TrEMBL record:
Entries under PROSITE patterns matching the protein: GST_CTER
Record protein name field: GST C-terminal domain-containing protein
Site note Lowers pKa of active site Cys, residues: 268, 311
Binding site for glutathione: 96, 144-147, 162-163
Domain of life: Eukaryota
Domain GST C-terminal: 187-311
A GO CC annotation given for this chain: cytoplasm
Active-site feature positions: 55, 210
A Pfam family per the record: GST_N_2
Family matches, as InterPro entries: Glutathione-S-Trfase_C-like (IPR010987), Glutathione-S-Trfase_C_sf (IPR036282), Glutathione_S-Trfase (IPR040079), Glutathione_S-Trfase_N (IPR004045), GST_Omega-like_C (IPR047047), GST_Omega/GSH (IPR016639), Thioredoxin-like_sf (IPR036249)
GO molecular function terms noted in the UniProt entry: glutathione transferase activity
Amino acid sequence: MSEVNKVRPRTTLDEMDESGELKRKKAAWCNWVEPGSESFPPEKDRYHLYISYACPWAHRCLILLKMKGLEDAIGVSVVHPTWQRTKPEEDEHIGWMFRDPSDPPVSNLNGHGSFPCTYCIPDTVNNAKSIRELYEIAGDKEGKYTVPVLWDKKKKTIVSNESSDIILMFNSAFNSIAKNPDLDLYPEDLRKEIDEVNSWIYPRINDGVYRCGFAQKQDAYEKAFDALFESLDRVEEILSKKRYLVGDRITVADIRLFVTLIRFDPVYVVYFKTDQSRIDDYPNMFNYMKEIYQMPAIKPTVIFPHIKTHYLSSHPKLNYYGIIPKGRKVNLDTPHNRDNMTST
């Protein structure tokens, strides 16, 4: 048996400590594409992005790709939202699988539900059937087969699976081949503020919803719950004075927050038990979310069927029958009130 096959596969659900808290481990692949690099220089048609529309970490990468106008330079493949056995003949690992839109619907691991393959985009680079296969091609030794994956077609390996790095690469490394090279979502003069905001939004909100949903003890859940809603109140206060998190310009800080906000009411309130308030209970945050959602490069990246299907069909212990809540109908295309907002 090869060394690759000896790797013990795992998922985020395996990253719990003795107190019942989720302790997410760092990404294993953290190379960088940058101008002048001998290993990973920016080149058209050299790189490919593997994502799930459901995954917020992958979603922010797709948003940056679209906003920067990199669609013709970097290809994209999209997995099916429902986790499946990746190698049922070898182990119990479940994870992301590729499907063609013409394939028949998929059921959850318990055989319940019927989830169509609409919006899926197969892997035309490696013809892989799962994200796991990509990691094995690259010789991964960690065993956590996550998206996003930024893939180097020339070297047939993973450049990065760390979304916070990938969005910064897309922001600046590919400017020579981007359609919108002048758009800077991580400007030098705002980097200190962006990093400071992210230092509490990531653990308390982005990851905070997962720490609520995956908590295995009441104390761990309540600790994450309280931190989450204290931080949402803090965001609401900021947005009462500023159009965006760090001023009058949209930045990566806003994209990082948006991907959590857009999933909050349709999924997290129910599934992760984050039920103290909905986003539309916060007038500033709700209008802020609508403004970002309505941006031409962003709205097409928000695929609610994949978002709801993934969470509600991929964790059999949390939703045995794979029932997808209908939810409330909220029109995110109604006018927002952020145009006249001036930072104070």
